[in-house]
What we know:
Layout: H1 14-22, E1 24-26, E2 32-34, H2 48-56, E3 58-59, H3 69-95, E4 101-108, E5 116-123, E6 143-147, E7 153-155, H4 157-160, H5 174-178, E8 183-188, H6 195-208, E9 213-217, E10 226-230, H7 235-239, E11 246-250, E12 255-261, E13 264-269, H8 271-277, H9 282-295, H10 303-309, E14 316-317, H11 328-340, H12 346-362, E15 366-367, H13 371-383, H14 399-411
Parallel strand pairs: 14-15
Antiparallel strand pairs: 1-2, 3-5, 4-5, 4-6, 7-10, 8-13, 9-10, 9-11, 11-12, 12-13
Helix pairs in contact: 1-3, 6-8, 9-10, 11-12, 13-14
Amino acid sequence: MTDLSDLTDGDIPPFFREVVERGWSVTPSGGRVLADLCPETFSTYADRIAEETTINGRGMTDYDLPAAPHERTPLLVRRCLAYVWACLRKAHAHFGDTQVTAYVSLSFADTEEALLTSNVTFCTPLPDVRPYIPDVEAVTDAAIAEVTMERQAIPNETHSGQLGILSSLGDYEPAWLAIGHKRVVPVPAGSRVDDALVQRITRGCRTGGADALLVMVLGSETVGRTWRLIAPDVAASELVGVSSPLLLASSDQQGAVLFSRPGYALVAGTAEFLKGAVPEGVDGGRARFGRYARAAAKRWPEFKDISQSFPPRHIAWARAREIPAGTNAARQVKMMQAFAAGSISGADFAREWLDARRASQNDGERLRDPLLAAFDQIFSLLEDYSIDPALKDPGDLSDEELVDAVREVMERTDGFG
């Protein structure tokens, strides 16, 4: 049996990887074709499916594979399906639907060596056009696989090894969390999947760059668990109302939502994934869950332990003197003090302060009033200031007006002295 659980772009030969990267286009007759495979001039075809399968069809690279069937077959199948999966995801992102169908054929070459070869093509079924292969099961001289995004399934790591998101204990695998420095944030949840939980995974996919999500229903039996590939735009209709335990993951495995029981879920992912999945920030999300755990203590007293397992990395600072040295928020304060003292120019202050602000937000540093209000006022001032003098509008603040406004914010905000 060929292990298909950890297919990656690395399984795709260089030529076909370039085809994937170029994506899809549309022919003058409306055919959906891979852009890198398009001819310079288009021929006449019997119908659109004939056009699509002809242009998109290619024999998979196999010259570098061993001849022995037991070695050649699994490697060839992996190449084909990794390529198919990548192309189908690109098609969904480009066309906004899952109508493109892939056909993978495996057969023995009519040569003395009789080596196993393969061909991959794509087409979009049409109601008034004869199917590319009317009856796949009736084909006897080749093995045919018909694949769409809606039909893909890959084995779960606890069954065959290998997505590696969950450990044998049912929590996140430490090795998976270590890749990309993923962080975990507990979030409130209902008794079943709701819109809020779906939005976390779909928005995480969007900011992380994944074009599909994986769904696995968990249970006491690990054997037979399978992933199901779902397009983000149908996730709500497919998932809302589904009960726990459930694991949702981005198709590139950069993030996941583990909904193991009613009441809460664990969101984990890279910084880019968490920008969408936990827009309140890592510390903001963890602090929010701490408040939720206290409010739900009578019903779910165990949530206190979960909250304590994932404490905020930073407390929310209210005054400049509370901010620890070495943080980006401390850098923002230092820039304000230097600008107010006349040590740096307005342009340098704006660049450095805004850069520190972005870094502070990315690191999950948290503020609260009155310091939060002060920093918001500085940001508003910089929106009315042009760093490049050539781009300055008549109503923009001058350097003198900006420094006076910054000094005023500092003077009326406790803790800057």
